[in-house]
Design goal:
The structure is a single chain. By secondary structure, the chain is of the alpha/beta class. The protein folds into 2 domains: 5-235, Putative sugar-binding, N-terminal domain (Rossmann fold, 3-Layer(aba) Sandwich), CATH 3.40.50; 255-405, Four-carbon acid sugar kinase, nucleotide binding domain (Molybdenum Cofactor Biosythetic Enzyme, Chain A). 36% of the residues lie in helices and 20% in strands. The strands form 2 sheets. Strands 9-10-5-11-4-1-3-2-16-17-18-15-12-14-13 form a 15-stranded mixed sheet, sandwiched between helices. Helix 1 runs parallel beside helix 8 (224-235), helix 2 runs parallel beside helix 3 (98-109) and helix 11 (289-298) crosses helix 12. The radius of gyration is 20 Å and the shape is globular.
């Protein structure tokens, strides 16, 4: 089995999002968490491998080094193509690292040109004339403008990316995507452009981009590539069968829901979810972290639901690192001491903390719950059922669906 794609994702929910899109389209997909020490045992077993990093909000130098280390670590799989995967809302400040990581991966792959395709129409993320929209609203007028780590205050991604790199940035607007896309891309390269944003407002635009750029050494963007690339691979005869090893859902599995995201959608999902919910006492946490951990370990619930999610304006400044520690340690103790075997986690930073604390290194996608949110089965002991949800993803009844389908 040939490895068609090696993706380097800048956070854990983003990586699982992409892996879910691929698996739903028949691609046998492996998720790895952190830079792997060795991939020799996976060779010939997967058509796509996604390395999930925790680099979205770190300094550019650290992000570059970690991304290149991940790229080098998966080369023994001989992947046909590399993808730098980031959020479909382009989460990155003007000092952010999407541009610098792209530069580093261009150098690592030896490529002279790459394209950025953040759009994911199935989840309401579209790009037109270089401007990103969220459910029809300009990015900088959406709730993402208030993101606590990466506030998006400009919807013009050509301008935004240009603030992060000195490389020449271009645009492939919608009329060219639906016209002579490959030829227009070649003209940009002739003009010295090294990175080009690609417009897309419907899935057919993703498909046109995938067909045009399936042979580029490096692609960049969101999980829209995972929607469109498998069709190209299948038409070209590159893809085999992904098998049908999908475990039966066991509703009685001890379950914990850990919600750290403060996104508008997660807050709405929590309001809809009928199970009793226990809220992190942030003031108590900052005063006595072990005491707050002990309090939460003592509460009961089937499922156990713990949230730190707060409405805008109620977030405790400076508490983010402590909340990440709390959720990570809570997950570890729930698995080790309470026998929890299903964890449903909301929020990218929270997911990274939980997976790291549990020491999970690899997982397979077993099914997709909602677009961009797969159910995972960890590899190793104990085997866990794991759902990592980006804050803005999932239907309103997501948490109930996740319990039923993971």
């Amino acid at each position: 089995m040939e490895c068609l794609l090696a993706a380097i994702a800048d956070d854990f929910t983003g990586g699982s999002d992409l892996a879910g899109m691929l698996r739903e389209r028949g691609v046998k997909t492996l998720l790895l968490f952190g830079v792997p020490e060795s991939v020799a045992g996976w060779k010939g077993r997967y058509e796509a491998v996604v390395v999930c990093l925790k680099t979205r909000s770190v300094a550019a130098g650290e992000a570059r080094a970690t991304a290149v280390a991940a790229f080098e670590a998966v080369q023994p799989l001989w992947p046909r193509q590399t993808l730098f995967k980031y959020c479909s809302t382009f989460d990155s400040t003007p000092q952010g690292n999407i541009g610098p990581v792209t530069e580093a991966l261009l150098a690592a792959t030896g490529a002279k040109f790459t394209v950025h395709l953040p759009a994911l129409p199935v989840n309401g993320r579209t790009q037109y004339l270089g401007h990103l929209f969220v459910n029809g609203v300009l990015l900088d007028e959406s709730p993402l403008r208030d993101h606590p780590l990466n506030p998006m205050t400009d919807a013009n991604l050509v301008r935004w990316l240009g603030l992060q790199t000195e490389r020449k940035i271009g645009l492939l607007p919608l009329r060219e995507v639906r016209g002579s896309l490959r030829e227009q891309a070649e003209e940009l390269q002739t003009a010295g452009v090294e990175m080009a944003l690609v417009d897309a407002v419907e899935d057919r635009d993703l498909e046109l981009a995938a067909e045009a750029f399936a042979d580029l050494p490096l692609l960049c963007g969101g999980s829209g590539w995972g929607v469109a690339l498998p069709g190209v691979w299948r038409r070209r005869g590159w893809m085999g069968g992904a098998g049908s090893d999908v475990p039966v859902v066991e509703e009685s599995v001890p379950t914990a829901v850990l919600a750290g995201s403060c996104s508008a959608m997660t807050l709405r999902q929590l309001r809809v979810f009928s199970a009793p919910q226990h809220t992190v006492d942030v003031v108590g946490l900052l005063r006595d972290r072990e005491g707050e951990l002990a309090r939460l370990l003592a509460v009961e619930g089937r499922p156990l639901v713990v949230r730190s999610s707060a409405e805008k304006g109620a977030q405790q400044e400076g508490a983010a690192a402590e909340i990440e520690w709390l959720f990570g340690e809570l997950a570890r103790r729930l698995v080790a001491e309470k026998g929890v075997r299903r964890l449903i986690v909301a929020g990218g930073e929270t997911s990274g903390a939980v997976v790291s604390a549990l020491g999970v290194r690899a997982a397979e996608v077993i099914r997709v719950i909602d677009p961009g949110v797969p159910a995972l089965r960890t590899m190793g002991e104990p085997m866990l059922r794991l759902v990592l949800k980006s804050g803005n993803f999932g239907a309103e009844n997501f948490f109930a669906k996740a319990i039923e389908n993971s």
